[in-house]
Amino acid sequence: MTRAATRRREGNVPESKQPVIETRGLRKVFRDFWRRPTVEAVKGLDLTVNDGEVFGLLGPNGSGKSTTIKMLLGLLRPTAGLVRVLGAAPDDTRAKARIGYLPEVSHLHPFLTPRETLMYYASLFGMPRKEAVRRTHELLVMVDLEHAADRAVGGFSKGMARRVGLAQALVNAPDLLILDEPTSGLDPIGSREVKDLVRALAQGGVSVLMTSHLLADVEDVCDRVAILERGALRAEGMIADLLRQPDAVRFEVEGLDEPAAAAVRAELEAHTGRRVRQEYPAMSLERYFLQVVAQDGRQRTFALAPFLGTAPADTERLTPNSQLPIPNS
Amino acid sequence: MFPHDGQCGARGLALKQVAAIARATLVEAIQQPVAFLILLSAVVTTLLVPVFQFHRFGEDGRLARDSGLSCMLVFGLVLAAGTAGRTVWGEIARGTAAAALGKPVRRVTFLLAKALGVFAVAAFFWLGVLSATLLAERGSAHFITHEDYSGYVTDVITLALSAAGVAAALLIAAARHYFGRRRFGVSAFVGVALSQVLVALATGFYNRLGQLYPLHGEAACAGCGADHAHAAGWVFYHPELNLRVVPAALLVLFALAVFTALATALATRLSTGSTLAVCAGVLLLGLAGDSLLTGAPFWSGRGLAAGLLPDLQNFWLCDAVARGGRIAWRYVGEAALYALTCCALFLVAGCLAFRERDLG
Asked: What does the pLDDT average to over B144-151?
């Protein structure tokens, strides 16, 4: 097996650093009707996403994230620079057959049902009908839309449409998943599920490039991030490296009463000669919300087999809080 | 990962993609209420012509036929251009084109599939209006000499059956929508077109006086105007439809194909309204071009316009069917080649325009 999936499933950290996405000096200038430049959306971007990693592209609105993604997919023509995706040019259909793409807005045909939508996208990959039917069913179960599988998506809420969009991005069991604002429009449970899904896919060896301006989402799932601002790369690196505060140390101790805590603090202050801050950590609001909803019996489950391409859909299921680690919650 | 190596080669994949995109385009187009309304308007207008004829000078059939073919061209043009605009421009604007092209679909494949889907809509429309035209011509007043009656006879049964077919199609579509949650637009569009085809086939079971076949001798034919080779024997099935209209209608279908290609190409860069406006201009100039533009030097403005615009007079030969006239099949074949050339040129231009199009 060549995919990082195998390595991850076997518990090995991927050793290969083969890039799945590579841009050099990537530039995009939008022009008006008369070909006059209106805005330079991306300015000489150098970016590398390696095989098997979850890479986050961060930036405020208008920073060039979506434009970069569209250039990676060949939907926008770069003004200058080099783009290689899975070792090929962006409009190479063989490479595209290995990519799953979730656009910023779930662009769906409003008259099609989720089932028809997934069958339609499956047919664009040349999937045999029988296999497409099976895959469609698995994905509908996965995104919890089986009950609405035969309703036109035109009447769906934003969150439901997002789920259909996510399912279509996974229809070809991609090696590289490109997610543009994947949690946009989702409720906290849906958002948590998507993040869990991304982690699960990454564990299965799928390389993921995601954009978001929800920093907590990126921090939860990404190995490495790049920060764009006004089309230029401002920072890039492993999240742990970027966020580490080398001159500070934090201890977490359970069951320490107040006098003992005060004694430890006094000892540390005497040792360092600096003021020591004492805190009582609280769980995140997201985690608290998920716990409340879970107690209320509304917790949904995720069937993971369709993404991993291993067992049938009903054999491997995941609850948002149990089987997968929840990073930094 | 798909496509499966070995199971689906590049050509096979492209064909599958064309079929999928064209089918989605067809379904999207005919489920729009406007498509159904255009078909309904064309069919009802065609069927009403024989009913509201008062000063006909014995040419009721011709008037019905010409009106039917005119409806076919004008309503068909609006349908084809509007559908192309909505499906190509609309998909680019909505982002569904970007979602499809994010998959392993080439832009050329996408655009050709779109054109094919739009043409399928136009062909369905054409079939319905052609059947309605044949029925309207049969239903309009004809002078007959029959053993029971001589004089002008309007085939009320045929006209009533056609109208009943439309009504039944609408009722069935409504029932399918209510009970089966099927799309009303799709059922109604297909139903109205098919109802006219079925009624046209059913007219073979009775003559203009409403007498059911089998009939013997001249009683079988109530002034159908055809060569009466059957007059000596029993007749079991005789539709009495003027099938000489079919080649003229085929020429109109070719014109619709040209407009489909033109509108698809335009819609890669222009909005639906602009596409419709340009197509209407091309229709007017294309029909008038024969008299306005011919004879001008090639490099003059008029000469260039004459060279670039499709000569639509080639596709409008309804006068040739008058008074027993026929359109030669050879001419139909040549017109098909001309239409194919026009389509190819427009689509190549469309592909070039779409190749560099930013899809945001």
From this structure: 72
The answer on A121 and A255 residing in a single domain is no
Tell me: do A23 and A166 sit in the same domain: no
Mean pLDDT check: name the lowest of A79-88, A215-224, A304-313: A304-313
Cβ contact, residue pair B360, A76, below 8 Å: yes
Task: Mark which of A131, A156, A173 sits at the end of a domain.
Answer: A173
The mean pLDDT value for A267-285 works out to 84
Residue A44 lies in a domain: yes
Q: Would you call A120 and B359 a contact, using CB atoms and an 8 Å cutoff? A: no
Compute the count of residue pairs across chains A and B with CB atoms less than 8 Å apart. 106
Closest CA to A67 of A59, A76, A79, A58: A76
Is residue A191 domain-resident? yes
**Domain limits at A128?**
111-173
Residue A317 resides in a domain: no
Axis-axis angle for helices B107-139, B329-355 (nearest 10)? 150
Instruction: Please state the φ and ψ torsions of residue B257, each to the nearest 5 degrees.
Output: -65, -40
Cβ distance A162 to A106 under 8 Å? yes
A291 part of a folded domain: no
- Cβ-based contacts of B181 with chain A (< 8 Å): 150
Query: What ipTM is given for this predicted complex?
Result: 0.81
Q: Which of A173, A189, A210 is the last residue of a domain?
A: A173
- Indicate whether A228 and A259 sit together in one domain: no
Q: Which of B12, B95, B104 sits opposite A105 (nearest CB)?
A: B95
Of A75, A96, A105, which is closest to B104 when you measure between CB atoms? A96
A183 shares a domain with A94: yes
- Inform me whether the C-beta atom of residue B21 falls under 8 Å from chain A C-beta atoms: yes
Predicted confidence (pLDDT) per residue in B321-352, tens digit: 887 789 999 999 999 999 999 999 999 999 99
Q: Is A75 within 8 Å of B98 when comparing Cβ atoms?
A: yes
CA nearest to A111 within chain B? B28
- Residues A110-118 have a mean pLDDT of 92
Instruction: Check whether residue A94 and residue A165 sit in a common domain.
Output: no
Measure CB to CB from residue A125 to each of B2, B21, B183 and give the nearest one. B2
Option in A97, A124, A173 nearest B20 (CB): A124
At residue A291, what is the residue type?
Answer: Q
pTM of the model: 0.83
CB-based contact, B233 to chain A, within 8 Å: no
Q: Give the number of domains in chain A.
A: 3
What pLDDT is stored for residue B237 in this prediction? 82
CA gap A75, A78 in Å, rounded: 10
User: Using N-to-C axis directions, what is the helix angle for B10-30 and B107-139, rounded to 10°?
Assistant: 50
Q: What is the C-alpha to C-alpha distance for residues A260 and A150, in angstroms, rounded to an integer?
A: 62
B99–A108 CB contact, under 8 Å: yes
Both A167 and A205 in one domain: the answer is no
A125/B99 touch (CB, cutoff 8 Å), yes or no:
no
The reply to whether A115 and A59 lie within a common domain is no
Q: List the single residue in A77, A96, A126 with the smallest CB-CB distance to B8.
A: A126
Q: Provide, rounded to the nearest whole percent, the portion of chain A with pLDDT above 90.
A: 42
pLDDT tops 80 at residue A101: yes
Domain co-membership, A22 together with A83: yes
What pLDDT was estimated at residue A41? Answer: 94
Identify the sign of the CA torsion B122, B123, B125, B131.
Answer: positive
3-state helix, strand, coil in chain A (%, to 5): 35, 20, 40
CA separation for the pair B51, B283 (Å, rounded): 29
User: Does any CB of chain A come closer than 8 Å to the CB of residue B108?
Assistant: no
